[in-house]
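Practice record 12: protein with flavin-adenine dinucleotide.
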Amino acid sequence: MASPIEKVDSLRFWGKPADKAFSMIAPSHLRHNPPMRQLGGRANALKILNSFLNARSMGYRGGISSPLSAPDACSRLSAHISYGCISMREVVQQTRAYIAEMPQQASRHRSGLTAFTSRLYWHCHFIQKLESEPDIEWRNMQQGYDDLREHDFNTEYFEALKEARTGWPMVDACVTMLRETGWLNFRMRAMLVSVAAYPLWLHWRPVGEWLATQFLDYEPGIHWSQLQMQSGTTGINTTRVYNPIKQAQDHDPYGKFVRRWLPHLRLVPDTWLFEPWLIPDHEKNSAAIKGQIVEPLVDLATATRESKQRLYARRKQPEIIDGKKAVIDKHASRKSMQSRKKTVSSQTLNERQLGFDF
Ligand SMILES: Cc1cc2nc3c(=O)[nH]c(=O)nc-3n(C[C@H](O)[C@H](O)[C@H](O)COP(=O)(O)OP(=O)(O)OC[C@H]3O[C@@H](n4cnc5c(N)ncnc54)[C@H](O)[C@@H]3O)c2cc1C
């Protein structure tokens, strides 16, 4: 990361004028051209790095989880990094140089940039995982989970998810934002995959293929590891199941995000906005919202509980317990096992050292 940066021709990029590299046409992996997507090209990448370092990073800590603040608080460099408009080395070096020049009292700003820098390490960590085991794009990282979800794929649920018709407003709003912009913040991506993997019990592979066609920043190294982590098939990460109603209450308390992306729910009163199926019948039939409310695909509490039971039952099987060591050997840090606390698995420690604090 500290090596000198190669000089590139700033006027020409892939043989095209720098700013127009893919500003008019959608990148080829996208099946559609999100009307509100950010523009590509090196000049745009430098501009947003600059605005992030100078100002926006002050809101990084505390601003990246809500889909309302995240579009400004996050760096928004991911697509530029994925397409090589700017290199990781350049981002790291510029960030370090910026931090070194900051006055001591700029603690909020500094802590935002420090948190951002740790994510740049995660980027490389995840790409390294895929490079050391390319098969994780196709099969469960922990093979003891094979056949857990493979034979239960519910196409109707999958189609409803893709078309923003799950009935959970926070989920449907995220799918709509993704379709329109090609971007979502980390927590909302994690929530989408968690809803797909647990209450809807969908296998991560088709879900990941679909999301790859939606993310402007599709980066296989990060993507497939995250899909498996959020679906519980790595066998070494803590199971995280995101409740879309709680996520809405925590990160969109006034319903601004949901109402923006689902305008048909604009007139639903706050009390029911995140669970509109609970609106009393006489209110449901009011002219303003009649016919607009989609029943959730499944009962969230029951379906989540059952899916966790299935996962935990599998987790107790000897092949999972035996297979855990192989996954740790493949993906964990090579530092001496002796120096680690016996109660913490090497992978967990490795990821703690990297500062994983989702
Ligand atoms: C299911 C799922 C799929 C994902 N797929 C992708 C993907 O295809 N491409 C992609 O770039 N990111 C992916 N991410 C990680 C993360 O959501 C995005 O990197 C982030 O939202 C991009 O916005 P940003 O550049 O403004 O992020 P910032 O918060 O500003 O982060 C700066 C950079 O750090 C790296 N980074 C941030 N978060 C992570 C993370 N959790 N793991 C690894 N690197 C990270 C990225 O390179 C990012 O551009 C995925 C996350 C999930 C949960």
